[in-house]
Structure formats: C-alpha cells, structure tokens
Amino acid sequence: MAQDDALIPDLSATFNPNETAPLDVVFAQPSPSTPYTAYASSPNSFLSSCPSLKWGICGTGRICNDFTQSLKILPSSTPVACAAMSSLESAEKFGRKHGIKECYGSYEELSADQNVQIVYVGNVHIFRLEVVEMMLKAGKHCLVEKPFACSHKDAKYLFDLAAEKNLFCSEGMWTRYFPAVERVREILSEGSIGEVVCVNSDFHFPTNDSEKYPDSPLYSKKLAGGASRYAGPYPIAAALCCFPAFPDKISCAGVVDPDLGVDLAGSMSLSFPSPEQNADSDPAEPPTLLKAKGRGVASLNFGFMGESAEETTIVGTKGRVLIHSPAHCPTKVTLSTKMEGRGNSSSVTWDFPLPEITEDIISSGGYYYPNSAGLAYEAAAIARCVDAGKLETPQFTKEETLKVMEILDEFLRQVGLFEFEEEEKEEEVKEEEGKEENKEENKEEVS
Ligand SMILES: NC(=O)C1=CN([C@@H]2O[C@H](COP(=O)(O)OP(=O)(O)OC[C@H]3O[C@@H](n4cnc5c(N)ncnc54)[C@H](OP(=O)(O)O)[C@@H]3O)[C@@H](O)[C@H]2O)C=CC1
Ligand SMILES: O=C1OC[C@@H](O)[C@H](O)[C@H]1O
Question: So what does this thing catalyse (predicted)?
C-alpha cells in the first residue's frame, strides 16, 4: 500500500523539532535526540534501524500473520521459528508463506528452540496461562496479544514469573505505540487540555463480517471468547491512559448470548478518584471545583453486533482531544482548545501516516486486520526495550495490564460470566479455614 503524499503532514508549524522527545517516545525511536516530527512523519526510515531481535511466532492464525508481516518492515527483527498447536502442516504452511525456516507442530518445541529470543503469543485466550508460563520457564521474553490473560490472578502470576526470570513480558496493546497516541500523551503531559475530566471510547466491530456464528472462537465460552475480551481491552486502556488512579466505581451492563454464555456487547461507567487522597478535605485550602486532580469519569462500550464510530474523546478542563476512527490503531488526532464562550474552540488536526508496506508483504498476502502495518511500531519499541534490558515498555506497563485485567474480571462478574468466581470463592474459604485452624493450633499451644 503506497502512502499518499498528501497524507504526510507538515508538522513544523505545531512541533518544535529541537525539543527533546517525550519520555514515552524514547524507546520507539532510534535515539532520544531524534526529532519526534521526523519519526512521526516518515516512520519507515526510523523503524528500519531498530536493534536485532529473533522472534518465535506462537500460533498461525490471522493476527500472527499480521504481526509477522509487520516484522518485515524492521529488517533486523526476524521471525526465526513458528509453531501451530493445530498441526505441523499449519506451521509449515505459515513458514513457507513468510520464509520462516523452523516450523513446529507444538508450542513446546518452539519453547525449546535456542535461537528464539522472544515469543509472540497470538492464539486463542484460554491457553494464555499455559503458553506464557511455558515460554517464560524456557527463558523466552514474551509479547502477548490482548487480553494478556483470562483473569487478574493469572496475569499477576505470569508477571511475577517473568520478573523472577528477569524476562521482558508485555501485553500487545499496540494502540499505545502509534505516533498518533504518542502525540496524545504528549498533549496530555503538556497540559494543553488542562485536567482530564472525561473519556468516551467505543469499539464495536461486526463479527458477522468474518466470524461464523456460533462456531468462531470469538463466541466460545470454552476458549474464553466474548466481546469484553476481544474488544474491551482497547476502550479500557484508553481510559487508563488518562487517569492515574484505579477506578473507585465500576458499573457494567452487558448483552449475553443466552445459548453460548458469552458477552456480545458491554458498557461500563467508571469513576476515577484523585490520587491526592486528602486534596478535598484540607481545611486550610478554600474549595474549588477542580482541586482534586485526576478525578473524572469514563464511558466505555464495546461489542460484536454492529460497527461503531470507534473514536476516543478525551475531555479536559481547557479543551479536548479526538482520536479519530479506528481509535484502537489510529492515524489521526484533533486537538480542540477551549476559547472564551460556551461552544467556542479552535482545532488543529494531525495525520500520522502508517508505515509503508513492502513488496515482500504484498507478495505474501498482505494483512487481515485494519492498520496492521502499525504493529511495526510496537515491534520496534519492544526491540529497543529488550536491547536496553528493560522488562516492560513505558508505553504500556504491567501495572496498566493488571488494571485492565481487574476491570475485565469485574465486568464479567457483574454480567454473571466470571468463570473463575467459584474457584476464587473456594480459595477464600480454604484461606479462612486455614486461618481458623492456625488459631486453634495457637490456642492449644498456649494452653
Ligand atoms: N492486535 C490486534 O489487532 C488483534 C488481536 N487479536 C488477538 O489475537 C488473538 C488471536 O486472534 P486471531 O488471530 O484473530 O484468531 P484466529 O482465529 O485467526 O486463530 C488464532 C489461533 O488460535 C488457535 N485456534 C483457533 N481456533 C481454535 C480452536 N477452536 N481451538 C484451539 N485453538 C484454536 C490456532 O492456533 P494454531 O495456529 O497454533 O493452531 C489459531 O491459529 C486473540 O487473542 C485476539 O484477541 C485479534 C485480532 C486483532
Ligand atoms: O484486536 C482486535 O480484535 C478484533 C479485531 O477484529 C480487531 O480489528 C482487532 O484489532
């Protein structure tokens, strides 16, 4: 896909190329002194210079195809092996398509390949715990598709294991690596829209287009499908990007398929407290409307039954930012600065072209999903982090993944679908019983 030159923006009027890059961009570009403008308006030349990294691809489905294609934009990030759980034939077919030499009929074999430094995990959700645990125990860094796991408990276990093994491990929240989103974070940190007070974000895509009902993994309870796990992580991550604290209230509603027992759509209203605990109650300070920084609300929704605008709007006290559709992999951002008088604002829009795709990508069948060339931003940032010995990326931290997981657990609980609820209750009962037994033993010892 050749880029239309008209889309390449002239950013010089709004960016100062001599400014140092914002912190979050540092690991996405070759050096902190590289002007953000140049990186953003001509991505290929910067992406092509990232450190080398040897990837193993775990899964041979659609997103694994797209991720592997995007590695072709980064000459030094090479897929050296791939594995399919379904069959060796599937792995070999994938390998032939992408020129990958080592093809395995099981993930175990991939985990034993000494040439693989990092594994991209892109299969169905239910195997997350098993597969990521296996890869970490085999000493591989891991990039794991969203959702990172099927519960907060599993995610915490995997991150603890990664830390113990001193390995990079991250959720593939690729949205965060798009220059459009890096620009949004820059706008927020500059204070251009003041304090964020509200985030609206939606992501409904019509699964009828590509997924056979009821057979697709997207509708499968057994494989941990459902709209909240396939689409929900994006709007949740959009809200978390703007508020520092964990929500103090999460109100959810969902549409559950009565036959399949998975959610087909959901909405969430979140309120976020100020992390400055006592800001409101300091009697020495006169009260003001916006004194408690970080306080605000988010309205998020996602689903499989229709196609939404797929936009994210971030409302601040001095203006707002619109992340244009498709907001989970965006190339366009509008900043509207509030002017005097209600309804008055001035706006500026930036376009950030996607990386150009190569002949090699075209001849091997291109991409399945929208804007997948942007996966190269994520892959490049991760190559830089691994090279620098970092165990996570500043763009999307483990703490954020854990927050997403906790919110997803809560959504599933509120719509009556949290599979691990019984397991959790049993554990709580066991813990209580253990405490009681200890008390009894202590009493006996004392007497
Ligand atoms: N970042 C992004 O933009 C996107 C991310 N995703 C995420 O990527 C992951 C995979 O999605 P996608 O590629 O669309 O999925 P696919 O349906 O294309 O399948 C992915 C892989 O999962 C395994 N699989 C598929 N069906 C079954 C089944 N019935 N039982 C057991 N295993 C099965 C297969 O693994 P194998 O090849 O090993 O046999 C298959 O290749 C999900 O986590 C999804 O949330 C999805 C779309 C876009
Ligand atoms: O992450 C995703 O999951 C589902 C897909 O259809 C969508 O395009 C995507 O990026």
Answer: D-xylose + NADP(+) = D-xylono-1,5-lactone + NADPH + H(+)
